[in-house]
Amino acid sequence: MKTALITGATSGIGAACAHLFAAQGYRLILVARRAELLAERARHLEDKYGIEVKKIVQDIRDFENLSYALETLPAEWKKVDVLINNAGLSQGLDPIHKGSISDWDTMIDTNIKGLLYSTKIVSNWMVAEKRGHIINIGSIAGKEVYPNGNVYCATKHAVDALNKSMRIDLLPYGIKVSAIHPGMVETEFSKVRFKGDENRAKKVYDGLEPLIADDIAEAIWFIVSRPPHVNINDMLIMPTAQATGTIIDRK
Ligand SMILES: NC(=O)C1=CN([C@@H]2O[C@H](COP(=O)(O)OP(=O)(O)OC[C@H]3O[C@@H](n4cnc5c(N)ncnc54)[C@H](OP(=O)(O)O)[C@@H]3O)[C@@H](O)[C@H]2O)C=CC1
Ligand SMILES: N[C@@H](C=O)C(=O)O
């Protein structure tokens, strides 16, 4: 049985990936902070698809505890076939001079360092097995910048660079590396960005049809299901209604 490890599996793209990989018969290692929601998601997946789920209730910004939780998994669970570095977020949408230092720290610690921490642990497992596939969730914000996107865009540009670096560093071990860069996807993302302001979050998608999480999960499945001689390095996937990264923030 194949194993997928998904960070940020309680909501949005990560939750959609968990469903899709479970439906494809993968057993899952799911990482997130919200214990009750993770347990509920895991129970549903086990009941619906008859697969096994390991729940890792951890903040990916905490390397020591994340490492302990993952390294103490049973040995056969460490033969991870697919790592989906999904956990991430944006905090605020302010011009640089008005930005919050703590928001900047949260985005940098989650989107860059958290991704590095999970990759550090799992890539070593994959190197030992000389196989695996790492999927990094970037963003259109990792390809372009937009007004007030500053630090979030910078973190996703970092993910873009890290993806290219991982691809080179892990090639000798037969490990595939791919990035997917979505445009607007209607998840909890905007509610998190605007600190729970549901009206402001909803307005982001007014007047256009955004992507949904399943669109990204299906694209990731396409990437993962390519034959061994094919590696998709980078996929940019946008709502038809969104040509560039500019977020129209309707206050
Ligand atoms: N939605 C969009 O428009 C786009 C999103 N993206 C990227 O897609 C990825 C997923 O976002 P999306 O599904 O939209 O957003 P959601 O807010 O719906 O999901 C984010 C997930 O990440 C988890 N998470 C956040 N911080 C941490 C942390 N410190 N430790 C562990 N888990 C964490 C959350 O779980 P919990 O709170 O339980 O820990 C949640 O499961 C992110 O990297 C985002 O930047 C990229 C392009 C577009
Ligand atoms: N595409 C969105 C999420 O990453 C954004 O850029 O805000």
Automatic annotation (TrEMBL):
The keyword Translocase is annotated on this UniProt entry: no
GO molecular function: oxidoreductase activity, acting on the CH-OH group of donors, NAD or NADP as acceptor
Pfam families named in the record: adh_short (PF00106)
Swiss-Prot/TrEMBL keywords: Oxidoreductase
InterPro entries linked to this entry: NAD(P)-bd_dom_sf, Sc_DH/Rdtase_CS, SDR_fam
Keyword Phosphoprotein among record annotations: no
Family assignment from sequence similarity: Belongs to the short-chain dehydrogenases/reductases (SDR) family.
Protein name: NADP-dependent 3-hydroxy acid dehydrogenase YdfG
